[in-house]
């Protein structure tokens, strides 16, 4: 397959550079769907979007040829599958996806004749953060609105953003590694070795986040997109989403006032936005509340605007941004 793949740069030996859950797909450097999976002498994988593609590349190494259904810079939730992509799914050796994040990909893969279908959502436990984000009293006893600001992905509102928790991402990596071994037994030993290395990196990243966020002035952070529920839960933080259902939806005046009160009470200094959508909402809320803005990247895709060339680098940047915003002691 004529796919240029982004090689993971030397992720340093720093613990922070440790996150990379192994799932079945390697990503082309431009994220485009090139050629026809199944026509190469490698193990061909079609991945639904970047976090899945990255995993496949890490676990498959030189043995896999991977393409992504989601174009670089495209908001993954907005994906619509083309006829060409449906045809490609018919010929690929494996399809790697995360059910609940991209309905069009879920449907296309379910109907396809892909030889192996790997749903990352079945490889770890999912939780319903939609109603929890902002849906509880914080350490100061302030009650926050429920559900209205959740990020609804349908089907029970289970939160699919598992790759932002290195522990869950590692669980998925192990499952993908086993699926690769079963689907391509001739190279099982290599997949197993790569999976073990990836899980070790993820363990290191988990340690870096746990240590780096343990002692901060505040535990509350505000984002435009309710994508960080797992990360917040893992490290004892509270995520407040401006408008959880859509990264680009406009918050109500009441919600803006509520966030301003929360920011003041909890010592929040920063409103976080992401690279794949406009920062207009974050800028508006920050201006009204007298706060700063910064990027907290959900790592749904890599573009020239990303703070890093791959998952590890962007997660390192996220840790740095959180430490600054939360006030590391």
List keywords for this structure.
329 residues, alpha/beta, disordered N terminus, four-stranded parallel β-sheet, 9 helices
Briefly, what is this?
The protein has helices at residues 50-60, 83-91, 103-111, 166-183, 188-212, 229-234, 253-266, 280-289, 311-326; strands spanning 43-47, 64-68, 94-97, 116-119, 220-223, 238-241, 270-273, 292-295.
Mean pLDDT, to the nearest integer, reads: 82
Proportion in helices = 25-40%
Please state roughly what percent of the residues sit in beta strands, choosing from under 5%, 5-15%, 15-25%, 25-35%, 35-45% or over 45%: 5-15%
Number-wise, the strands total 8
User: SS-based structural class?
Assistant: alpha/beta
* Low-pLDDT ranges: 1-38, 131-156
CA-based gyration radius = 19 Å
Q: What overall geometry do the principal axes of the alpha carbons give?
A: globular
Task: Describe the strand arrangement of the main beta sheet, using strand numbers.
Answer: 2-1-3-4
The tally of helices reads: 9
Structure description:
By secondary structure, the chain is of the alpha/beta class. It has 9 helices and 8 strands. It has helices spanning 50-60, 83-91, 103-111, 166-183, 188-212, 229-234, 253-266, 280-289, 311-326, and strands spanning 43-47, 64-68, 94-97, 116-119, 220-223, 238-241, 270-273, 292-295. Strands 2-1-3-4 form a 4-stranded parallel beta sheet, sandwiched between helices. Helix 4 runs antiparallel to helix 5 (188-212). Mean pLDDT is 82; it is low at 1-38 and 131-156.
């Amino acid at each position: 397959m004529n796919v240029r793949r982004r090689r993971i740069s030397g992720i340093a030996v720093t613990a922070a550079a440790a996150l990379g859950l192994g799932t079945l797909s390697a990503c082309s450097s431009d994220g485009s769907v090139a050629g026809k999976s199944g026509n190469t002498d490698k193990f061909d994988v079609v991945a639904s979007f970047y976090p899945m593609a990255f995993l496949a590349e890490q676990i498959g190494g030189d043995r896999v040829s991977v393409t992504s259904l989601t174009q670089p810079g495209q908001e993954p939730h907005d994906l619509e599958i083309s006829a060409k992509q449906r045809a490609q799914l018919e010929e690929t050796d494996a399809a790697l996806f995360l059910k609940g994040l991209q309905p069009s990909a879920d449907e296309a893969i379910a109907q396809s004749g892909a030889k192996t279908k790997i749903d990352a959502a079945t490889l770890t436990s999912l939780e319903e953060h939609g109603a929890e984000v902002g849906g509880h009293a914080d350490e100061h006893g302030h009650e926050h609105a429920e559900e209205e600001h959740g990020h609804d992905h349908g089907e029970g509102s289970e939160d699919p953003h598992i790759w932002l928790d290195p522990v869950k991402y590692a669980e998925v990596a192990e499952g993908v590694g086993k699926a690769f071994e079963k689907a391509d037994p001739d190279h099982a030993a290599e997949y197993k070795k790569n999976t073990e290395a990836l899980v070790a990196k993820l363990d290191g990243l988990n340690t870096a986040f746990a240590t780096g966020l343990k002692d901060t002035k505040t535990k509350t952070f505000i984002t435009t997109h309710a994508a960080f529920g797992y990360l917040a839960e893992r490290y004892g933080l509270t995520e407040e989403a401006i408008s959880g259902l859509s990264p680009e939806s406009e918050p109500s005046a009441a919600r803006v006032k509520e966030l301003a009160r929360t920011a003041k009470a909890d010592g929040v200094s920063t409103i976080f936005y992401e690279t794949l959508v406009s920062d207009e909402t974050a800028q508006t809320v920050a201006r009204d509340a007298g706060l700063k803005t910064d990027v907290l990247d959900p790592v749904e895709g890599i573009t020239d605007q990303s703070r890093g060339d791959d998952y590890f680098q962007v997660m390192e940047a996220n840790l740095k941004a959180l430490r600054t915003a939360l006030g590391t002691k």
